[in-house]
From TrEMBL:
Gene3D superfamilies: 3.30.70.270. This is diguanylate cyclase. Its EC number is 2.7.7.65. One of its GO terms (cellular component) is plasma membrane. It catalyses: 2 GTP = 3',3'-c-di-GMP + 2 diphosphate. Coiled coil: none annotated. It comes from the Bacteria. GO terms for molecular function: diguanylate cyclase activity. GO terms for biological process: cell adhesion involved in single-species biofilm formation; negative regulation of bacterial-type flagellum-dependent cell motility.
Length: 398
């Protein structure tokens, strides 16, 4: 196999391999449609490269048009998938204008005023503009993690490659008047090799992002209670420890609320476990809605729940608990007989100094015990503070 043919087949092979890999990923993660778009993008780019080297029976001009249409579709899909992966709104209009403008210019310099050099500039500038548009969309999220930063830099590098490399090579070795010897030129060689390298780097980064997505999903499953949708005990403790450290560093107040559903065992015995599950799910939904994104809410036992509230003192946490208690006791629950009242008891403790999670939970649990003992459907506060550890000062000589 001669070198020219090897280089010509390099990119289609890479593109098909990457497309197949993303397709396999998507079959296991159907809830991430951007993976299917990536697979389609890489697969469509493969015939684009083949039709640059091999001419279809429709003639050279139309073959080149088909090839560049494949490139354009692939570029639009790739850029859209990257932007969508990071939760950004895909700039369809901007991508469409750049892609459409590039293809229109290509057609003009292919059929109206044939000029190979201007066709090269038109398509490369269009793809460069799309790459820079992707970089602009990734800019707000570039510091969210390593993959975001790498993809942002690769988008910038891709844009510069389409603009700078093309101009440098055209100025140094152009203009190109025909396809005779074109596929052995420095432009075509650098274009293929730079595209192969950037494709591999972008795909590797996207594979890493997909792997991180899977790891985050698995972690979420191991830290989430499936019935309530809240954090389980392990997840709550990890999240609470993190928030306590953040609040200690910033000198912010923190409070803990423990809640326990009243007479839950009796409710299960009378109405069945399915009704008990609905009660837990309903209470968890109200607790999650009241907590919002500011704190951490978890189901730490059968019918016991915990909420850590940053930026809240004892009074604010009491208002939170009273609001949830009132809301819950006043509403009915689907699946239970009309008039069935379900209530909850609450214990509240505010953090003292840099008190750890365990003693804070112990004090809140003592307050919760008082609420259960004194009639339930109430909120009790812990006014106690953890015992200070006395450390004698070293004696000073003379």
């Amino acid at each position: 196999m001669d070198t020219g043919l090897f280089i010509a087949l390099l990119n289609p092979t890479i593109a098909l391999a990457l497309g197949a890999a993303f397709l396999v990923l998507w079959t296991y993660q159907r809830h991430r449609p951007y993976l299917a778009v990536l697979a389609f993008s890489y697969c469509v780019s493969a015939p684009g490269f083949l039709f640059q080297y091999f001419t279809l029976p429709i003639g050279m001009a139309l073959t080149k048009l088909v090839s560049n249409i494949c490139f354009t579709i692939a570029g639009c899909c790739l850029s859209g998938a990257i932007v969508a992966r990071y939760g950004r709104k895909v700039p369809h209009v901007g991508i469409g204008v750049l892609a459409g403008g590039g293809l229109a210019s290509f057609c003009w310099f292919l059929f109206v005023e044939p000029d190979l050099t201007w066709r090269i500039l038109a398509m490369n500038f269009a793809f460069g503009g799309i790459s820079l548009l992707v970089a602009a969309e990734l800019r707000p999220v570039r510091n969210n993690g390593p993959t975001e930063k790498i993809l942002f830099l690769l988008s910038l590098l891709s844009g510069l490659n389409f603009f700078v490399r093309t101009l440098v090579v055209v100025i140094a070795h152009g203009p190109f008047t025909s396809y005779d010897g074109f596929y052995g030129s420095s432009y075509w060689t650098t274009a293929l090799l730079s595209h192969a390298l950037l494709s591999l780097l972008i795909a590797l980064c996207l594979f890493t992002a997909a792997a991180l997505d899977v790891m985050k999903a698995l972690k979420a499953e191991t830290h989430t209670d499936p019935l309530s949708g809240l954090l389980n005990r392990r997840g709550f403790e990890e999240r609470a420890e993190f928030l306590l450290q953040r609040c200690a560093a910033a000198k912010f107040p923190v409070a803990l609320v423990l809640a326990d559903l009243d007479h839950f065992k009796a409710l299960n015995d009378v109405h069945g476990h399915a009704a008990g599950d609905r009660v837990i799910a309903d209470f968890a939904a109200k607790l999650r809605s009241a907590t919002g994104a500011r704190g951490a809410a978890g189901r730490i036992g059968g019918e016991e729940f915990a909420v850590l509230l940053p930026l809240s003192d004892l009074a604010a946490a009491r208002l939170f608990a009273e609001a949830v208690r009132t809301l819950y006791s006043a509403g009915g629950i689907d699946g239970l007989p009309a008039g069935t009242k379900v209530t909850a008891s609450f214990g509240v403790a505010a953090r003292s100094g840099e008190e750890a999670l365990e003693p804070l939970m112990r004090r809140a649990d003592e307050a919760l015990y008082k609420a259960k003992k004194n009639g339930r459907d109430s909120v009790r506060l812990s006014f106690e503070r953890p015992e200070a550890v006395f450390v004698p000062e070293p004696s000073r000589a003379g």
